[in-house]
Amino acid sequence: MWTGSSVVDTNNTAGFGAGAVVALATQPTDGDAFQQEQYLWYSTDGGNTFTPYGPPVITNDESTNWFRDPKIVWDADHSTWVAVIGKQQKAVFYTSTDLKHWTYRSTFAYTNPNIGGFECPDLFRMKADDGSWHWVLGASMQGDYTGKPDTYAYWPGSWNGASYTADQTDPQWLDWGWDWYAAVTWPDTANPDTVRHAIGWMNNWNYAPHPIKTDVSDTYNGQMSVVRDLTLKAEGSGNYSLLSQPSVGLDGITSHTWSVPTQSVDGQLVLPYHGAAYELDTDVSWATANNVGVAVGLSADLDHKTNIGYYQGNLYVDRTASDFTAHAFGSLKQSQAPIGTGRTSMHLRILVDRSSVEVFADDGRTVLSNQVMFDPNDTGVMLYSAGGSASFANTTIREFEDIKTAANPNSPFQDFEGSGYGSWTTTGTAFGSGPASGTLAGQQPVSGYEGSKLATSFNGGDTATGTLTSPSFTIGKDYINALVGGGDHPRPSDLFAGFEGSGWGPGWTASGDLAGRGPSADSLPNQVGSKVLDTYAGADTATGAVRSPEFTITRDYLDFLVAGGKHPYFGPGATAVNLVVDNAVVRTATGNDSSTMAPVSWDVHDLVGRTAHLEIVDHATGAWGHLMVDQVLFSSVPSAVLGEPDNQTTLNLVVDGKVVRTTAGQDAEHLSWTSWDVRDLEGQTAQLQVVDNNTGSWGHVAVDQVTFSDRPAS
């Protein structure tokens, strides 16, 4: 059984009883795609169970493979049921007095430009804001054939009981994004004449059949949109348009609301907010700027994000920088909608979820809905303007609860709601004798924590230091989640390899001409210490490889120094440093035909928890046929240098005396979710440790609501 619709037969027109629920849906008879026909089911128990009526009530006389998705509506003016069915580049209309016997009436065709077949056609009558009544014919269309959206097209018009006449030849579009398809609408219970609800499938047949990031992380591909409220607005000169706004039902799951002061932005401004499910409202105005907007799903290094803005007369959603894999969205990286050239202001209402962005502009006249590929840690928000300054006024952020965890929440491991820390232990004075009731004396306003209390090291101000350590526990869930705020002072770097010994190091192996050798004494520019790993081995003709022992990636960056030949790994005669995960090279670097040691910093935050090893390969025998490597570090920041002072303000996960996960605040008093994927550590005994070694500016850390869960927090 495929797509269809159902009605409540209040007046017993079908003879199944007053109030029976009658469904009409497409089914390919005998499984033959060229015999898509319309079958009837009925329910006399309110929709709990359905009984098939029998043979198809609307047959596929043309044996076409596109004859589907009947939408039923009652035509009160003519006392008949109307069914609209989708075909290739046309919609066909049938009428019936009893829902069982149907008569073909007419065809509505749209062929130029080609926007494909009518899928999930829609037909309804509603009252506009000027009091006039109108019919609307809609359908999901393949507009990408001719440069239009792949979403819901609609034609306001009139129905005379037998045929449909559109007010205008070309359709309007209810959504201009790439992911609002197969949409359905139904009347609002309280205001059925003036408000309809709508929901769409947030996916696109250009990539729906292919695996994307959420297939791996959450075993789903695509999602449903937020429910919208539709109203019909008179535009003048006899024209009418549907406006969309998120349903007021979202108000019921709002957990926090923040107001952001008016911001004047010329360039980029990162807001002190982090979240995974929220609504952002803002009024944007500008004079000379040529590109203004909001970036959401922002990573710590500002590289990973989705941009929502205005440029050259178009409202756009650019998800290029949130596309993790080349095949995820293909060429459909940016969607855009014309909203008029020469504009100097717009209102944006942006709904962000873990894997979607839905943008409503100018009171819902223009909407763009798109899937995105956010990493769980990509939770930042940034305002931007190019070519001049822009003002962002009346900005509010409403954070939403996770409806799954709200209905069945995990009991927190620690919510810091007691008078003391319980079985957690402290050193120093920074954490006081127990959790704090919000903002402390001399502190900026604290937000983002849950309940009435939180753990903070601001007791006594920024100069106080100390630690707060949990009792031991066994890691038994996939994720450890915690709200963290305060100073952005990460743990010092961890040295993985300094190459100062007589051999490569414990667990390191070598092959080829490098077997049996060790680090070389040298004095290269920027070298650290007295030795480096050098594949010269007496001559450029020497070849071989040096491989590290296996290790688990536990920090966001892998930094090292490199010099020597510029011969990339994926070319002939490579001289390269490679990071290998699951037998695949996932990061690689080479030299620059120079003896000066240059820093390399790999962002590996997406690989935390994975087992890896390093390999230094020398396949070159000509000029600069060697490579020098030194000072391999694991760090929380790029381009780290060993020996930084330990002034951390962090939350750390400790296993067997080693820190295996770490996070710091973001120089903000707002607590944001940190989610650690700890599937590689399940079954091991661990402790959490909150550390404040800092006595300077932002020299404190705050933590709340530590939970163990099967998914990241939002």
UniProtKB/TrEMBL annotation:
Domain Glycosyl hydrolase family 32 C-terminal: 263-398
Keywords in alphabetical order: Glycosidase, Hydrolase
Pfam families: Glyco_hydro_32C, Glyco_hydro_32N
Sequence ranges assigned to domain Glycosyl hydrolase family 32 N-terminal in this UniProt record: 1-243
Coiled coil: none
InterPro entries xrefs: ConA-like_dom_sf, Glyco_hydro_32, Glyco_hydro_32_C, Glyco_hydro_32_N, Glyco_hydro_beta-prop_sf
Top-rank taxon: Bacteria
Keyword Transit peptide: no
Family according to the record: Belongs to the glycosyl hydrolase 32 family.
Protein name: Glycoside hydrolase family 32 protein
